[in-house]
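Researcher: Structure for this, please.
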Amino acid sequence: MRNNRLRLVVSGAMGRMGQALVRHVADDEGCELVGAVERPDHPELGRDIGQLALCRPLAVSLEHDLRNALIGAQAVIDFSAPEASARHADLAAQAGVALVVGTTGLHDEQKARIRAAAEKTRVVLAPNMSVGVNLLFYLARRAAETIGADTDIEIVETHHRLKVDAPSGTALRLAEVVGEALAVDDLAERLEHGRQGRVGPRADGRIGMHAVRGGDIVGRHDLHFFGPGEELCLTHAATSRDNFVRGAIRAAHWLQKQPPGLYDMGDVLGLK
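Model: Predicted structure, token format:
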């Protein structure tokens, strides 16, 4: 049974998502936690990740060098930081280990390094691993194709007060999906991030983007299509990080049967 279990490394193991992943992997009969990685200056380095995340030993020490953790691993699930994720993609590619990246706030150069890694190994890159959110992307595309050209589109994302990036990666992906459906050439030029002052009437073709921060809300995304005499609103609300964890583990399993390449959760879920 041990040999049939997916051997996983969790990167960003002491973050909110990382600890949730450690707990789920430890209790999943189809997985085995073989590594846990954090930044080099983390105060808990060297301690058993099980004691830190579960209050019980797992015989896996928290370390800072992914290269050590990759020995014997089949997949890495990375929810760390943008530059760390790009570096980890380089290492996973060198080792031929599958990689699932859920880190948000990636710059173009960091995304390019992940794409380059996907030429050598299997990579899922997704701003949100939730099955429900990826269904939202699918529905958003269909709605935009049907009524987007005749409506005013606004995206509102709401997250806990500790989230460091805005807009969220999920909100940006929603905007990309809508832009692709409407054949928008320059999405950045079309986005309008909040409004202040005497801004005048709403310009045609703009996509509003709004970030709300407060409390401990896990995440909520609302995509509005305002038309003459009606409004369509597509909403996803996360009440637990467990759905992101389940999606990431599902992606890691799925990658084991895929050739090298760059994939997203739409591929994992068969929504393409």
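Researcher: Any notable elements?
Model: Residues 46 and 62 are 5 Å apart (CA to CA). Residues 131-147 form the longest helix (17 residues).
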